[in-house]
Write the structure tokens for this entry.
Amino acid sequence: MSVIEGKKAKEILKKAEFIAVLTGSGISAESGIPTFRGNDGLWKKFSPEELSSFEGFYRNPAMVTEWYRYRRKIILGTKPNPAHLALADLERIVAEFYLITQNIDRLHQRAGSKKVIELHGNIMENYCMKCGKVFDIEEFDCVYEKFEDHVPRCECGGYIRPNVVWFGEPLPEEAFSEAYKAAVNCEVFISIGTSGAVRPAADLPRYAKYNGAYLIEINPERSYLTDIADLWVKGKAGEVLPQFVEEVKKLKGMK
Ligand code: NAD
């Protein structure tokens, strides 16, 4: 059975040379990383304000640092799933392709995607809140070992925090501007594994749609975007995306 249903969807995908994709935590669920709002969502067990906000870090930097180190370890123990791999494949067959992600897990890059726009930063890096110096995993762990209180500080004396966007913080300007341009200029916008609840990322599919793009959603459940989607492919990303990309290749005469 085809996952690309309808004559219009097929015609558009056959010709599309500019595709933008937005992914959310749902795409990594099949790699074993919990989503935020699902039944096993992370925030069911922990308070987001304590663990993912500047106020929480200020109140208890050691706990927040430990929590991110723990999550990073879990994420490093996972692998890209067939959905991540299918998107890397899709990038190779269209002229212009942007993968905008809300995820901080770097699984898209590990799957081979090249043009990845990270809207919420990534969990592999940390940076100094005073001088801005960025620390990769090895550098961070090296500094971390030196502080018995589990609160690593930079040489300049500043606190070192994860390079992720916390609740209440703005998105990185350059990343959002690039994502915005991709959304308003693309022919097809595909939203995958995102509830469409976290703004401003959730506005991108709407910008795309209102600027003429064909909007496709891939999600096993309805989301805030389902009602405006031109096509809803109902299913788990890891199950439907590989088939979706194979069908796009066939439509483009590549198979
Ligand atoms: P969300 O938790 O609000 O929504 C997840 C969506 O994924 C839901 O609509 C759900 O139905 C769908 N979903 C669940 N399993 C799926 C599957 N197998 N295939 C396709 N879809 C599936 O997540 P969100 O919209 O990404 O927004 C919340 C925030 O979560 C983001 O800011 C993101 O930074 C952060 N986050 C990231 C990770 C990660 O990096 N892997 C993990 C948890 C949270």
Remarks:
- Residues 34-77+123-164 form a domain with the SIR2/SIRT2 'Small Domain' fold (CATH 3.30.1600.10).
- The chain has a mean pLDDT of 93.
- The pocket of nicotinamide-adenine-dinucleotide is lined by residues 24-30, 33, 35-38, 42, 102-105, 120, 193-195, 197-198, 219-221, 223, 236-238 (CB under 6 Å).
- Residues 109 and 131 are 27 Å apart (CA to CA).
